[in-house]
Task: structure prediction
Amino acid sequence: MPHYPCQTCHISRAQILRPSTGTRLCAPCFTLAFETETAATITSSSLFHPGERIAIGASGGKDSTVLASVLQTLNTRYNWGLELVLLSIDEGIAGYRDHSLEAVKRNAEVLGLPLKILGYEELYGWSMDAVVAQVGRKGNCTYCGVFRRQALDRGAAVLGVRHVVTGHNADDVAETVVMNLLRGDLARLGRGTSLVTGTGGAEGGFASVKRSKPLMWAYEKEIVMYAHHKRLDYFSTECIYSPEAFRGSARTLIKNLERIRPESILDVVRSGIDMARLVPGAGGEGGSGSLRVEAIPRDAEDDTGGGCSGDNGEDAGGEMARVEETLRLNERAEEEGTETEIRLPAKAVNGQRHDRDGLHTGPPAAALPATVNGQNHDRHTHIPDIAVVPIRTKQEKKSGRKTAGDNLPPRQRLGQCERCGYLSSQAVCKACMLLEGLNKARPRTGIEVGGAGG
Amino acid sequence: MIDSIPIAVEFTRIQSKTHRDSPVASGGLELLFSNQRKHQVALPASNPEGTPSTVGYLVKWLCENLIKDPRKEMFVLDDSVRPGILVLINDADWELEGEEKYELQANDEIVFVSTLHGG
Ligand SMILES: [Zn+2]
Ligand SMILES: [Zn+2]
Result:
């Protein structure tokens, strides 16, 4: 079998077939391209400012390991002057994080970055083992998931850092787009596809910590390839036997799409951004061609990635309840007469039985144009190798912004949790509610770390 | 004529110079393969049809001979490698080498990398 030459250096043997472009590269040319593209995502959106302190949410898994390695490389290469710190969360389940925290410690050492490991105990006053002792095994996943969503923000606040970066990749974002479409949750669609999110909480508290995902345009495949060829050391924190059911099916769908046509993943991400743009107030900034990036609000129930045991995610138990809640909100919207129909391009949902069922109760949105960008099936032509950062051009200007503005749909009203200040659709956020329950039932011991913002 | 060819097979998520060969599990695909990451296998030199052995045949052979775990679907789906598992042939993406149709040579190194979540 003849080997292909690298299409960049034309010397070495190609080792990677890039999913975004179909380009064949050798390992060194690939890692350089990957780094350059991540740099482009960051600089084109002015994601960081010189001297900024950035906490990297580090789980010991591949995504955050690659993120830490790339950021450290770029920070040195381009003299960004960032102050990087690794931040790991320990749920406090005996034995559970041992391997992954060991991986994080090794990475901290190899990269020469400071590492801070914070436990639920320190952040909430309750380790998961203590929660289980109190509430039993049943339902403890809910606590774990709800606490996890705020853990990085709370941890960053403890470190006095205002900006947390996470390793979410393009596949994660595409999954989230599919999930939010199936749930009919257009408000969250914007937050899931946004490069930066904030909670809009009071300045200084953990609720004002900004979060971003610099790898949101990077294919999972390339992240794994990057880790492989750079010989990075990572551990998987997710049990491969128990992916969360709902995310699991979205994930399978995305992976199958990728098998048929690798560009699909970025197309789904771009479509998600385009759809989110049609929802007033939901943001949906991808940070690509635009000049500025606004942090769009994120609420206490937001997040992507991971199952119960993932490092930044959804709780398995709450998923169905949340779908129902969304449907309820949508029903209300319908009563108020603001419901409009979502029409997806028929091609995109072809053959996926559950898609239609999931969508017919969809919330307010304008009808989408029948063509989504990136219909080009020739993988070798349409995106130049280096410019992976998707550029939205004419379509954006033409799109139906005006209609969307005129037709203000009620979305989940995001106020702030009155206890901790975190953005929440309820007066008291889920984390504070769960904490209240726990603290009430606990025999008085004096110390109480509650939701008090800080 | 029970010709066989030696093939190095690895199931992994972890790659590091210092920890590559450590007994520490990586929490990955090797769970299906007696929790052992590296295997030296002697693969029959030809497919049942008499043609030279391919990666496609290797995958089938691994399922029949090496997987100790009943959950084979974590590795194969509809008779091919499960989407989300990357295959490297001598450290190159198997898509560059003809995927299942690649004809194995003695001492080839085949690596299966799971891309499942894990932040
Ligand atoms: Zn090259
Ligand atoms: Zn709260």
Remarks:
- Confidence is low (pLDDT under 50) at residues 14-25 of chain B.
- Chain B touches chain A at residues 13-19, 24-29, 31, 71, 74, 83-84, 86, 88, 91-93, 95-98, 102-103, 113-119 (CB under 8 Å).
- Residues 55-65 of chain B form the longest helix (11 residues).
- The first strand of chain B starts at residue 4 and ends at 12.
